[in-house]
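Quick board copy: two proteins, each given as sequence then tokens.
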Amino acid sequence: MWRFAGKRALAALLVLFAISVMVFLIFFATPGADPAARIAGRNASQETLDQVRVSFGLDKPIYVQYFVMMRHLLIDRDLTSFVNRGAKVIPQIQAAVPVTLSLVIGAAVLWMILGVTMGVVATAKRGTAVDPIIMVLGVIGISLPVYWLGEVINLVTQSRLHDSIFAWVPPLGYVPMSDGLGRWALSLFWPWVTLAVLYSGIYARVLRSEMVASMNEDYIRMARAKGISESRVLIRHALRTSLIVIVSLFGLDFGALIGGAALLTEVVFGLQGIGKLTYDSLQNFDLPVILGCVLYAAFFVVLANFIVDLVYAWLDPRVRNV
């Protein structure tokens, strides 16, 4: 197991290095991309451009620029924005990370509980009216756009019924956990629900499909022949093997959302997370912030996949030899 984990960790580091090089080349070495022109502003003279290149080290060979940029970002942690002069990149990311982590972790707990419960119940009740009802609810959840569902929730909870039924709902925005666990959870409750509605439908349908397929396997027949109860066969045997697919899917979804894919939810509910920070930096073409956000997102996607590989190997020991 340790050897398997070491190989996956080395692969993860190589992937992160490759991503950092690729992103740097796209924004700093692509023909027509001149960071000095962005820093100096419109209609800057050639003399001003030359001064900016010297000041920011953009006159050096491209490989030197890469290592200097990585040093300022990852080691010295003093890389500054090109747009907001003096504003450091790392503190901006550090301020946004708790918001995105709070949003995604809470939503992930909800959608895993709902998705697994719906998938197991639908499998147990296949052939009855409960099965198609659960699957239809899953399709409805998948079909509702996050931004539309979020706006509807805001319309109801923040406007139409805020003074009566939803008087307990706080204004839009993020409340830090340091201000109280209850206030923090209330500020994120509806964003959690919005994300969970989408992903619980996906996970329920995938899990049901996997469990129904596994119910026809030989090891399930053997368990039944031993006299094991149907509920135990369903949970101990069919569910465990089917969770391998769910774990893989969860790793990809969780990593992507932590990396900024929860942008629409953050925008709708006024959460200043990583997705919103990345969007704003792209709008302003703020290269250092873009680079920092992309590397942050890549780190969490790679980390999530690394953890998924370990869990996958724990669930299925045969993977360790791959």
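And the next:
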Amino acid sequence: METRDLVVIGGGPAGLAAAISAYEEGCTDVLVLERDVMLGGILNQCIHNGFGLHTFREELTGPEYAARYVDRARELGIECELGTMVVDVSADRVVTAVSPARGVFSVQARSVVLAMGCRERPRGALGIPGFRPAGIYSAGTAQRLVNIEGQMPGREVVILGSGDIGLIMARRMTLEGAHVACVAELMPYSGGLKRNIVQCLDDFGIPLLLSHTISRIEGKRRVEAVWVSEVGPDLKPIAGTEVRYPCDTLLLSVGLLPENELSRAAGVELSPVTRGPVVDESLQTSIPGVFACGNVLHVHDLVDYVSQEAAMAGRCAARFVADGARLSEQDEREVPLVATGGVRYTVPARVSASRMDDKLTVRFRVDNVYKDRYVSVYVGDERLLHKKKRVMAPGEMEEVVLKRADLVARPDAERIVVTLEEV
């Protein structure tokens, strides 16, 4: 069995950013394992612009953004094995994978970064009455068909769910000559970015039906129509509100799920809210030396934040390799972060003041649309941050910054609370 200092699972934007960051931190024995035949991950099919505004201060398409990291990884000589599926990660950091070139092989890693990304929630999880005809696609599958395979899924389209991929595909299908009848969203708010609602729906006259869902699918061999119903406060269809939309294609954009089968099998503690690993201030999971970043940790709205988070995971993984004993000490006091008052979760979920950098970015999402609220942070009973936000929505990630000096000055604090307060 070969031994490597760092194994990164996933060659998308998160995995590449983590590998590059670790290499630049001094950990040069890095191996990236990617199941696809090319690096770049999902960005290869995201040919629209809007990427890189935070990271590169310019507007790039998805492939252009990914190429920046692919080129840098190649420039550094980071070893990447493509077409390689990781099938197991053990608690003692043995990574088992399979590929056509090497068959089944194992690598003993001193440190591991989990960067497997996420997948789309399928139709089977929705329980929509009807048969199983052709013409039902996840929005990401349709995106790949149009942008990479050059195939049109259909011409008369209805989209269920207002996640960012669904919004973007509403525009993309329209530009390719299809007619998008509507986008139906179960919740009373959109799950996507405000800019995508404006640029992808409003600019093309595509209606967004909030508090609506698909109550029935017509067609046996191919989708013929869908019935869209209004839902009540219990999110169940209201009888008598059904409207029939003839269509040959139904796209589903109903949520993303972090790919954590490997994490679960390794014994990593997972959050019931994000379904991603529970991590500390260094993005280390409950298993010492195993770090997580990107959409496998929690679903992001901007890839720029993925890259920033992954770079931090890579640096911390490199430091673990250099001084793992110190970083994995269990007797260092950790303070839990508590999400309440409209905050769904925080990443990280716990912090050790003795291990963190001078400043730590804590990211979170809210559970509803809030207007004119304060984001407040309490360390113990003392409020350290009170920042007004005009609008917050579940589709957009929020953040606060913790200072190490504030936590060190309050060594007896039992918890850090992140909450929303009315003006």
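Board note added afterward: Residues 332-423 form one domain.
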